[in-house]
Amino acid sequence: MDQFQNFHAKIQTLSNLNERIVNSHFPDEIGRCISRPQRPASQGGWSRHNSSGVGSEELPTTTPVPERGPPTIRPRLPMEVVEIILCNLSKPKRQLLPVLLANKALHSVAIAQLYREMVESRPAQCVLLVQHLLKHPSVHRHVRKLDINISNIDCPTGNFYRLMQRLLQRTTMLTHLSLDFPKSHSPVWILDGCAFSLRQFSTSMHSSHELARFLDGQPHITHLTLRGFQSDALKSLPYIYMDIANSISPGLLVTRDSSYEQFVLGPESLKKLGVFNAIHAGPTVVRAVVEGRPVHTASIPLFSTNAVLSLVALESSSVPMKRLSVISFDPNAPNFIFEEVAKRFTELEALHIVVLLAEFTNELLLAACPFLSSFKKLKYITCVATSTEESTYAEEKEIAEKWHEKCSTLKTIILPRGRVWFHKPSLAPSVGSWECLED
Fold this sequence. Notes:
35% of the residues lie in helices and 15% in strands. The chain is α/β, with parallel strands linked by helices.
């Protein structure tokens, strides 16, 4: 009970400091917040008689102040403040257990914090978590975030998926949902009959007609992440990644030409979508999600046969792109990536480029200078790539200074060798020095 006593002492301290304000929220103690009526003279209130005994004039007399009793167990702070305090106790969640046993008032707040976010990635614990939640219907209304990751096991049973469907149908207050299954599994049917309204959705399931219909029924999603191996992307995987393609179910590979074409969203779907992340999707899926929607932040892969097509698809957003991250599997990416991005997304504020199958030489980085002049608001740029050659401090500083000459809004630069460069401004406009974080 030491943890609860410390917690209660903190609440009492805060309540004493804010008593005058806090008491106004509690009807049973409203008397402390308003002026008291004047007491009759006979009750030791205000009294003074003149020498003639005719008439009277009230004067203050000393009245003993009642002593405060022992602190009450129920906090005088508003429950919203108590909830904020409990948020700091919820990591790890076992710290909430003493609060649950305190009293009814604190239990009602602590139980909501305990079940607000359910995150589990251990297979055995995932099963236990789902079973536990199903056995306690009273906590379903408290679950706001559910993150289940069983991608590291080969073949989950059908019973587990059926349990997941029952749980998803009962947690009607969900706003954040993340489902990671083995890459060959895409049980979209577990989402049938769900009544929640999501704000964020992330899944490893394949982009199919069924998933599109589910997304059509989620108009409030603002963040969408598709991590599945999409069929239109399999055609573009480089040879060294063919072991991934071969592990996908044969049916997906055989019907690849029709599978991803069925992923078509309705024209009124995802009208609030602002952030889109695609881990393995090709240009067809990117366009299906982004086109005509206010996507301002995106992360997409670029494959060798259709890298430019993916950027063209991303350009179909209804608002200018503010933050862009690209992961390139194209060996030729260093030769065209800056030019293609600069032509299409001039309003970028942050650009992150990761090249996996090629190197960025100093010559290529300097050759990107003319394209950087197209960016009017770019503040942060990251360029990560494998590299076999070393760059000196002076060489990288020269690159940072040249880039800043072409794009004066740059504040932070991360170059392929991992050094972080930041611009240190001076009093004179457009003048400053570039320094390395290692300094």
